[in-house]
Design a protein that fits this description.
Number of strands: 7
Order of helices and strands: HEEHHEHHEEHEEH
Largest sheet: 4 strands, antiparallel
Distance between the termini: 94 Å
Structural class: alpha+beta
Strand order of the largest sheet: 5-4-7-6
Radius of gyration: 26 Å
Shape: extended
Number of helices: 7
Length: 233
């Protein structure tokens, strides 16, 4: 964030957190239709780089880069960055099935389009599982059919809930859908598969993962020399 005056460490962390939260909120509202999947801020001595991750980068960039220039101008004016000190980039999400934000937005637009709740949720769960995820869970709550609000869960596969691996393996997102009958809440949790290269999933192995090796070929047993001598006698 553009900070000219010297501030304490505590205030700097709070200011950075508020900046990240507001930027994420602004981009998720603006680029929700284009498969927005998160933002990363890199601060260098020369400039601040903001990397927008999305499933459809062409729409984020716009015609001849027009849209990304508009977004850069808005961010610069809102947060008081000096001229040419902030730059926005668009990065494509390789596996959109493993991105909870993208799937949440997909489900949101399905519901707004009038698709039945159960069918929409099962469609998302099946798409996630078919693209190599280890497990997933979709929770949807609100006035689904009748006037009484309720919650429904759709689960498939293996899903961890606690511990250090949760930080690496679980992708989670929450969205609110403004339907005619009221607000519906959506929560999507995806457990990614292990990838040694770290591209399609975390490179860190699960701590309770057990690898069973194939047994080695047993060498033929040889008779001791003393016993052989007795046999000849």
């Amino acid at each position: 964030m553009a900070q000219q005056a010297q501030i304490s460490k505590k205030r700097k962390f709070v200011a950075d957190g508020v900046f990240n939260a507001e930027l994420n909120e602004f981009l998720s509202r603006t680029l929700g239709e284009d498969g927005y999947a998160g933002v990363e801020v890199r601060v260098t001595p020369i400039r601040t780089e903001i990397i927008i991750r999305a499933t459809r980068t062409r729409e984020v960039l716009g015609e001849k880069g027009r849209r990304i220039r508009e977004l850069t101008s808005l961010v610069q004016k809102r947060f008081g960055f000096p001229e040419n000190s902030v730059e926005l980039f668009a990065e494509r999400v390789e596996n959109r099935a493993a991105c909870a934000m993208a799937q949440c937005e997909s489900l949101r637009f399905k519901l707004l389009g009038g698709l039945a709740v159960r069918r929409a949720c099962y469609g998302v769960v099946r798409f996630i599982m078919e693209n190599g995820a280890k497990g997933c869970e979709v929770i949807i709550s609100g006035k689904l059919r009748a006037q009484r609000a309720k919650a429904q869960k759709f689960k498939d596969g293996y899903l961890i809930s606690t511990g250090e691996p949760k930080k690496h393996y679980i992708s989670e997102a929450v969205r609110h859908v403004l339907m005619r009958q009221g607000v519906i809440g959506i929560k999507v949790k995806i457990m990614m598969s292990h990838d040694p290269e770290g591209k399609m999933g975390p490179a860190l192995q699960l701590p309770d993962n057990i690898i069973v090796h194939e047994p080695k070929d047993d060498a033929p047993l040889m008779q001791p020399a003393a016993e052989e001598a007795q046999d000849y006698e």
